[in-house]
Amino acid sequence: MTDDRLQLYRQSIDNIDAALVFMLAERFKVTQAVGAYKAQTGLPPADPGREQRQIARLRTLAAEANLDPDFTEKFLRFVIDEVIRHHEAAQK
């Protein structure tokens, strides 16, 4: 027996998950270009000031969207740490 309402919810979740994956892929394409640029120009792989500003900005957006700002910060921190790891590798 299938629950049509549940199936519709799950279909929406699947669509959102796919969009998130594609958005992250696009974000990482851009951050890889930033990493290459930083390596070419001798800029450091991390920019703690920008990271703090971004986290503060996205915490505010999360609160406005009724999304837990702590969750948002953890997610963003995970993404930022991965980007920095890529930028450090580009410097080698």
N-end to C-end Cα span: 57 Å
Q: What's the SSE pattern? A: HHH
Strand fraction equals: under 5%
Oligomer: single chain
Give a summary of the structure in a few sentences:
By secondary structure, this protein is mainly α.
Structure, described:
It is elongated and about 55 Å long. The longest helix has 38 residues, at 4-41. The chain is mainly α. The protein has three helices and no strands. The model has no long low-confidence stretch (mean pLDDT 94). It has helices spanning 4-41, 48-64, 69-90. α1 (4-41) runs parallel beside α3 and α2 (48-64) packs antiparallel against α3 (69-90). Helix content is 84%, strand content 0%.
Based on the model shown, name its key terms.
3 helices, mainly alpha, 0% strand, 92 residues
Topology:
Layout lengths: L3 H38 L6 H17 L4 H22 L2
